[in-house]
């Protein structure tokens, strides 16, 4: 195996290992967990009057460029945080795979050209 073949084989192996991580990923959601202090509907509320308002946790997601908030009951906050973390991890893995494919697009045409030159000789 020459150097170019070895480099290509190494990249293909890396891409395979990344794919394995991707297919074994857990549940995920694209968004972030945020705490918002919103006023309530009562006309006289001490907490609202003091500016403290009512903090609650939401999943913030973007749908067609618009932010959507999904209320998270306390018992589900950790779950939602886990899912957003898994999304970021998956994004990282896909980003790495993309870079591997960039390298392959750079190397494969060169290797092909070299082979064709050899065949013509
Ligand atoms: Zn209030």
Span between termini: 20 Å
Order of helices and strands: HEHEEH
User: Helix/strand/pairing class, anyone?
Assistant: alpha+beta
Residue share in helix: 55-70%
| Count, helices | 3
Return residue spans where pLDDT drops below 50 for at least 5 consecutive residues: none
Q: Order of strands in the sheet with the most strands? A: 1-2-3
The 3D shape can be described as rod-shaped
Number of domains: 1
Mean pLDDT: 94
Biggest beta sheet attributes: 3 strands, antiparallel
Radius of gyration: 25 Å
Strands, total number: 3
Distinct small molecules: zinc ion
Relative strand content: 15-25%
Describe this structure in words.
This protein is an alpha+beta fold and 121 residues long. It has one domain (3-120). Helix content is 60%, strand content 19%. The protein is built from 3 helices and 3 strands. The chain has helices at residues 3-23, 46-49, 74-120, and strands at 32-38, 54-63, 66-71. It has a 3-stranded antiparallel β-sheet, with helices on one face. A hairpin with a 2-residue loop joins β2 (54-63) and β3. α1 (3-23) packs antiparallel against α3. The longest helix has 47 residues, at 74-120. It is rod-shaped. It starts with a helix and ends with a helix. 3% of the residues are buried. Bound molecules: zinc ion. Zinc ion binds at residues 39-40, 42, 45, 47-48, 54. The site of zinc ion has 7 residues, from α2.
